[in-house]
Design goal:
Chain A is an all-alpha fold. Chain A has helices at about 1-45, 50-65, 65-75, 85-110, 115-125, 130-160, 170-180, 185-215. Chain B starts with a strand and ends with a helix. The chains are: A mainly alpha, B alpha/beta. The complex binds adenosine-5'-triphosphate and magnesium ion.
């Protein structure tokens, strides 16, 4: 225990640099996946056959390819087409795209859960498609999708470690590098695990609160 | 003001509206009665483009109702609708429900819209309930908010689809009272209802619909007291004396 604590004090500053990258990747890809996911979801519910079908195809395509392969593709293959990204950029874009598929399905389910009478009421006071979405459906769908959205955040935080495979020195890779040079596997990986846990626990608490809240809010 | 010419409508193989023609003048109050599934809701929904129709023509103040044209938004703002199940926005207060259309569709000034919204709340007898959410109101109160929401668009006509059928019997009166006051103010209204006594008293004209066609029509008071057609007689007997 003594040994662990002294190791912890020694390695913490370096690991914190990894934490910083982990947070950046998670937040960046969260924002990107949310925007893309919302866009895909709106395509899916647009009522326009071509948009719906092509988006569904795209979503299945994204879901059918492992995240790690998508990351390799963006980081190692895109340069051949003249698109060169830093490892961090590639990680954010790759994870953002990969998760946009899950976000889209979550958002779509939330949108479709809204009572059709709401849409008719909105239309009957002269609202067009965009206004119906913005003023009536999305605000109500928001409450429904929030708990699953929190879960996606937790999964993204953990999956940000996949960025290590394209050389981003986030928490997991930083830990691996320290362990390799000091041979203190136990201390280092225990710390890494605890640090991930410390970031996840508040999110889990948040999701729990949201679920409780939405359970009492139901009409 | 509202004109339907030989409207037909099918849902798949089901021919629901089979040649309906009718004209509603400005200020006129028309009640539509008929058995369940006869197509009453479908007719109303065609008039403000919530449903498309297959053939014939519907015009509102001369403008053709076409669900797929941009003009439909304008027509809906002129012809409001009140639904059986109220369909208030549950995440907004009563007053917010009322001013939603004026502020976001008509782009009215917020202050004047709110002021007018409060007046409308008072007009439907709900002064003091402005900040309640729909979930905190009784069915009758919710339906009156829905009427205020329809009025807020300053429509030329209002369509009512069985506005009191989802209400407990003791709450029906308060909604009918509000509708009656609208009638007295000269609002053009098309009302689908099973409240025969109300229709007889308030409506100018009644249409009886069965299986997608108008079986009988005439001045509400006389037609609903002395229906000529056997199917109308039968229906009215069943509605007024369920046993
Ligand atoms: N969206 C739809 N898809 C398929 N069939 C429909 C649809 N809407 C209505 N129908 C059918 O069309 C017929 C007429 O329906 P409509 O709702 O207009 O009847 P209604 O006279 O309003 O009846 P009620 O008194 O029960 O409200 C019914 O047989 C109904 O099942
Ligand atoms: Mg109906």
């Amino acid at each position: 225990m003594q040994q662990f604590l002294s190791d912890a004090v020694e390695f913490l500053p370096i690991l914190m640099q990894g934490v910083k990258l982990t947070v950046i990747i998670t937040l960046g890809s969260l924002v990107l996946s949310t925007i893309l996911g919302l866009f895909w979801a709106l395509m899916r519910v647009s009522g326009i056959w071509v948009l719906d079908r092509s988006t569904r195809l795209l979503i299945n395509f994204i879901r059918g390819v492992p995240i790690i392969v998508q990351l390799f593709y963006i980081y190692f293959v895109m340069p051949d087409f003249g698109v060169t990204l830093t490892a961090l950029q590639a990680a954010i874009i790759g994870l953002g795209i990969a998760y946009s598929a899950y976000q889209a399905e979550n958002f779509r389910a939330g949108i479709e859960a809204i009572d059709h009478g709401q849409i008719e009421a909105a239309q009957s006071i002269g609202m067009g498609w965009f206004l119906v979405m913005r003023r009536v459906i999305l605000p109500q769908a928001f409450r429904i999708v929030l708990p699953p959205y929190g879960n996606v955040m937790i999964m993204m935080l953990k999956d940000s470690s996949q960025a290590s495979t394209i050389t981003v020195a986030e928490l997991a890779l930083q830990g691996k590098l320290i362990a390799a040079s000091t041979f203190k596997n136990t201390s280092v990986f225990t710390m890494v695990a605890l640090m991930y846990l410390c970031m996840c626990l508040p999110l889990m608490y948040l999701v729990g609160q949201l679920e409780k809240h939405s359970a009492t809010q139901r009409r | 003001m509202i004109e339907l010419r030989d409207i037909h409508k099918s849902f798949g193989a089901l021919h629901v509206i089979r040649g309906v023609s009718a004209t509603v003048e400005k200020g006129e109050i028309v009640c539509i009665l008929g058995p369940s599934g006869s197509g009453k809701s479908t007719i109303l929904r065609c008039i403000n483009g919530l449903e498309s129709y297959d053939s014939g023509a519907i015009t509102v103040e001369g403008a053709k109702v076409d669900r797929n044209s941009r003009s439909i938004v304008d027509i809906r703002a002129r012809v409001s609708m009140v639904f059986q199940r109220f369909n208030l926005f549950p995440n907004r207060t009563a007053l917010e429900n009322v001013v939603e259309g004026p502020i976001f569709v008509k782009k009215e000034n917020r202050t004047t819209a709110l002021e007018r919204g409060r007046d409308l709340m008072a007009r439907v007898g709900l002064a003091g309930k402005e900040d309640n959410y729909p979930g905190q109101l009784s069915g009758g109160q919710q339906q009156r908010v829905a009427i205020a929401r329809a009025l807020a668009m300053q429509p030329r006509a209002i369509l009512f689809d069985e506005p009191t059928s989802a209400l407990d019997p003791e709450l029906v009166g308060e909604v009918l009272t509000v509708m009656k006051s609208l009638a007295e103010d000269g609002m053009t209204m098309i009302i689908v209802t099973h409240e025969v006594a109300f229709a007889r008293e308030v409506a100018d004209r009644a249409l009886f619909i069965d299986q997608g066609v108008i079986v009988e029509e005439g001045p509400a008071a006389s037609m609903l007291s002395h229906p000529r057609h056997a199917r109308t007689q039968d229906f009215l007997r069943r509605v007024t004396h369920p046993l």
